[in-house]
Inverse folding.
């Protein structure tokens, strides 16, 4: 998608300036013509366009879906509903997106096709669901489902945020205490040694760390920043990202807990897609993409191929060894009974509750690790300063 700035004349001879998002120059000129404008001058903008400058948050998506569902159910047309939706937007970038969508739908373009032009602002999952709703004529029902889906995802997100609050505070406290010990406490005790060469090895190491933090603290900031950016860049490398994502689901202790969270999201997404009449192969592709895990996506390439060849979904998923056997058994029962969408929905509700418990247990694993870390640092400091303190006390006794 490209952005074109133009200067044109309308039917009354009035000069009009603006910008239009289009796939290419030909598509841009076609849009200008459809608007009834005579283009005098235009150029492709080098700046990022609206679609990449704004991304709707989960809370906003839940609100949008709920509002559209309510308006469509009450009998309003889709065009009128989108018109009201654009007027409700407070953010200027979001409003610009909805204005463009409104104009496109008003010209006869489908809602889903209009949203595809802003695939970085709206999730592909939502666009696929809207497309299915338009095809089946049940867009109002789909929007209600999506409202519930995003409300559920937002709830899980808030649970994670709430659960991480205490560990984050504890981590910050650890850093502050360690910095205070090395910058203010350690130098006092190190000064007690008349001959630095006689300091124990541990004390020498702690003294070096203390001196580094006092005199070259800026290097620590540079190192930390380099590590953060280095890790972020490394995770963009496909092979490294694949291994990292594999570790998340296969790691000892935390792996099964992370898998429960993924299972809940996968079941909920697959249930919503399948119940909307989308073919199973497409459901699997989109449901695995929603998880945003390279390892799982790679595994599901095999699942999709096997399902295309006539293999049962339960059998193909079981061979991935990603999910619990209970989840695979539930899918098998759903396939045999012909009520896969209903069973998936009930399973999704169960695993959403399990996800909340898994998050709490994951956080519970972090807290003692932070406490142990802080205890070790304090223990090292005490071990380093004790010889100096003991020596000074002996000196006082000798006097």
């Amino acid at each position: 998608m490209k952005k074109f700035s133009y200067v044109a004349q309308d039917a009354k001879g009035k000069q009009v300036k603006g910008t239009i998002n289009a796939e290419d120059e030909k598509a841009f000129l076609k849009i200008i013509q459809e608007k009834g404008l005579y283009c005098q001058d235009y150029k492709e903008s080098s700046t990022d366009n609206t679609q990449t400058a704004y991304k709707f948050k989960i809370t906003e998506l839940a609100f949008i879906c709920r509002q559209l569902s309510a308006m469509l159910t009450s009998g309003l047309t889709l065009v009128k509903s989108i018109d009201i939706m654009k007027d409700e937007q407070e953010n200027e970038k979001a409003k610009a997106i909805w204005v463009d969508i409104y104009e496109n739908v008003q010209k006869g373009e489908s809602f889903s096709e209009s949203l595809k032009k802003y695939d970085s602002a709206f999730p592909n999952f939502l666009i696929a669901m809207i497309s299915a709703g338009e095809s089946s004529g049940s867009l109002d029902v789909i929007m209600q489902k999506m409202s519930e889906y995003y409300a559920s995802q937002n709830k899980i997100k808030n649970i994670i945020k709430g659960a991480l609050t205490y560990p984050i505070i504890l981590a910050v406290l650890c850093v502050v205490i360690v910095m205070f010990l090395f910058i203010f406490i350690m130098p006092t005790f190190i000064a007690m040694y008349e001959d630095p060469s006689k300091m124990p090895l541990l004390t020498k190491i702690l003294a070096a760390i203390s001196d580094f933090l006092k005199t070259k603290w800026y290097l620590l900031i540079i190192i930390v920043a380099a590590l953060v950016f280095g890790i972020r860049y490394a995770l963009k490398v496909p092979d490294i990202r694949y291994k990292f994502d594999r570790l998340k689901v296969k790691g000892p202790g935390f792996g099964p807990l992370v898998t429960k969270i993924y299972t809940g999201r996968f079941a909920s997404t697959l249930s919503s897609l399948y119940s909307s009449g989308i073919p199973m192969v497409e459901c699997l592709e989109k449901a695995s993409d929603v998880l945003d895990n390279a390892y799982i996506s790679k595994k599901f390439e095999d699942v999709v191929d096997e399902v295309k060849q006539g293999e049962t979904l339960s059998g193909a998923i079981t061979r991935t060894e990603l999910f619990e056997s209970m989840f695979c058994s539930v899918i098998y029962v759903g396939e045999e009974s012909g009520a896969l969408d209903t069973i998936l929905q009930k399973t999704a509700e169960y695993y959403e509750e399990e996800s909340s418990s898994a998050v709490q247990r994951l956080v519970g694993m972090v807290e003692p690790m932070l406490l142990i870390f802080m205890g070790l640092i304090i223990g090292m400091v005490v071990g380093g300063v004790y010889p100096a303190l003991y020596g000074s006390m002996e000196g006082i006794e000798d006097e």
About this structure: Confidence is low (pLDDT under 50) at residues 47-52, 395-399. The chain has three domains: 2-47, 53-150, 165-399. The longest helix spans residues 340-398. The first strand starts at residue 2 and ends at 9.
